[in-house]
Design a protein that fits this description.
The complex is a heterodimer of chains A (252) and B (94). Chain A has 252 residues and is mostly helical. Chain A has a single domain, classed as Up-down Bundle (Ferritin), CATH 1.20.1260.10. Chain A has ten helices and no strands. In chain A, helix 2 packs antiparallel against helix 5, helix 4 packs across helix 6 and helix 4 packs antiparallel against helix 9. Chain B has a domain of 60 residues: Ubiquitin-like (UB roll). In chain B, strand 1 and strand 2 form a beta hairpin. The chains are: A mainly alpha (252), B alpha+beta (94).
Chain lengths: 252, 94
């Protein structure tokens, strides 16, 4: 059996993660606590969009049905998206946004770092560029976690609450996925289950220094990789896809 | 929140060998965050290889009222300008 469908599916997973995270994060523009932070979050969102584009293009190319990055971004329905659920959750407050960025960027960092040595040249090239960007995203989230966690009583409470709200969606990130595991066995992809220890070490060190507790929560059912999503993804897609669907072929 | 964030002056060095040049200012809660905000605002298009941030409150400046005593006396002293020798064309950034 050809390996191509698996590669297309895997590129789509990573592309969807980046695309949905970028869309959600860009909601912070003009709502962050300071103009400077608007710009910081917008920069991160743009980096993620920049990762999503080659990944979706590649997924379409390998799939071989002539779908472009735009077709995949704007003309798929909710059940066809394979992003992790943590990327789609509604914004919440700044503490929650930072908690999610910490969890997600640290996962992306570990993943891209290993994907750089993929035998698939396109995936390796995307990863080599993205890992530098994500290292900054992770640092940005960690710096804020330290300041909010070890800041005032109110900032500590909100940061802890933000972690508690996104924590049920952590388990899904590291669950075994057939695509990732099949490709990882051939040196093409990264098996996410292997990332958990390195991810945990980094997060634990940040939380400890920030005087925050590791949240004890019951994992959500997950299933994003199989197209199962929270209702929040539908709302996000409605906004993201509206223009392209109302005016097909619209250009700047 | 914004009223609590101090202002920082940002200096960016565009490449090795040149000096840091004032690029603008940012608000940030502390020096480390000021560096990051400066990176996001002033080096997005590969403008720099090094950034300094300085608390704006640490800068002592000449008051506009004192302009004449400070600067007017340099007028009309052409002999202070290094225009009496040729600069080799290989010397850049002089």
């Amino acid at each position: 059996m050809s390996i191509q469908p698996a590669i297309a599916g895997y590129a789509l997973q990573l592309g969807d993660d980046a695309l949905i995270a970028a869309q959600r994060l860009s909601e912070w523009v003009a709502r962050a606590p300071e103009l400077e932070e608007d710009v910081a979050l917008a920069n991160i969102a743009l980096d993620l969009l920049g990762q999503a584009r080659p990944l979706l293009s590649y997924a379409g190319e390998v799939e071989g049905r002539g779908r472009t990055e735009d077709d995949l971004a704007y003309f798929r329905d909710e059940r066809e998206f394979t992003n992790l659920q943590i990327t789609e959750l509604a914004c919440g407050d700044f503490g929650e946004a930072i908690a999610r960025q910490l969890v997600f960027s640290c996962y992306q960092f570990e993943m891209y770092q290993r994907l750089q040595s993929s035998r698939d040249e396109t995936l390796a090239a995307v990863a080599a560029k993205a890992v530098k960007e994500v290292a900054y995203h992770r640092d940005h989230a960690a710096q804020w976690t330290l300041r909010l966690g070890d800041g005032t009583e109110e900032s500590h409470r909100r940061m802890q609450a933000g972690l508690t709200r996104c924590w049920p969606y952590v388990a899904e990130i590291f669950r075994p996925d057939p695509l990732g595991q099949e490709l990882a066995a051939r040196g093409l992809a990264v098996d996410a289950t292997q990332l958990r220890p390195a991810w945990g070490d980094y997060i634990a060190a940040v939380l400890r220094e920030a005087t925050l507790a590791w949240p004890e929560t019951i994992p959500a059912p997950g299933g994003g990789r199989r197209g199962l999503h929270t209702e929040q993804l539908g709302q996000l897609l409605a906004e993201m896809q509206y223009l392209a669907r109302c005016h097909p072929g619209a250009r700047w | 929140m914004s009223r609590d964030w101090p202002l920082w002056e940002v200096f960016v060095r565009s490449r090795r060998g040149l000096s840091h040049i004032h690029a603008g200012s940012v608000h940030a809660p502390d020096a480390q965050m000021a560096l990051r905000n400066a990176r996001d605002l002033y080096t997005r298009r590969q403008e720099g290889v090094s950034i300094w941030v300085v608390p704006s409150s640490a800068i002592t400046a000449v008051s506009p009222d004192e302009k004449d005593p400070y600067f007017a006396s340099a007028a009309g002293k052409a002999y202070r300008h290094p225009t009496f020798y040729d600069i080799p064309s290989e010397v850049r950034n002089l």
